[in-house]
Amino acid sequence: MKSQFDRKAVSRSFAVGDRVLVLLPVGGEKLSTRFCGPYAVLRKVGENNYVLSTPERRQKTRLCHINLLKAYVDRVSTTAVCCVAVVLPQSEDEGENLYTPPEPVSARVENTCALEQLGKQLSHLTAVQRQDVLELVASHPVLFKDRPGLTPLAIHDVETASAEAIKQHPYRFPPHKKKQVAEEVAYMLEIGAIEPGSSAWSSPVVLTAAVFSPLPAS
């Protein structure tokens, strides 16, 4: 039985001065343990026992078996790296019709303002292509309103496993994000994307970073 138990055992040892973590019981909880330390190895006693220096505990030194010890690895310090941007001259081979993406815009840009400047955003197209795009957009004004619309053509049913509500403690929002969450919820209520509900079912609010907006969107 012992040979089977020790089949994957690895011989370990510590030298004097090594720092180790020791598995000790948690105060007030007899069946709970955790690794404490790090503590320095003072000397080795026998084949598998070590005397550790524990200055902040009631026993200034402690004799521990090697099975209760594991090596302590210092955190590797990282050096801050500065980002450097290099401006390269434009190559003549790139051509004059190279498309350059527009600058980042706000997440709530009004479509009316965007349509007024649509021609400037299509400068990478030819005159004929630009006119085709403008006519196509102008022929569907209902799709480019200032507020998001709602289509009845697609319906998504959320299927749940059971009708039993999951009891869970509410998570606390960071104070510096409460105002932003309240503004986002008020905006979605205003445009009709959501509606108030009193059901036992609820979904947590998750803030995700939007690439085109300086603020995260909900």
Automatic annotation (TrEMBL):
InterPro entries: DNA/RNA_pol_sf, Retrovirus_Pol_polyprotein, SH3_Tf2-1. Residues 28-73 form the Tf2-1-like SH3-like domain. Pfam families: SH3_Tf2-1. PANTHER family: PROTEIN CBG26694, PROTEIN NYNRIN-LIKE. This is Tf2-1-like SH3-like domain-containing protein.
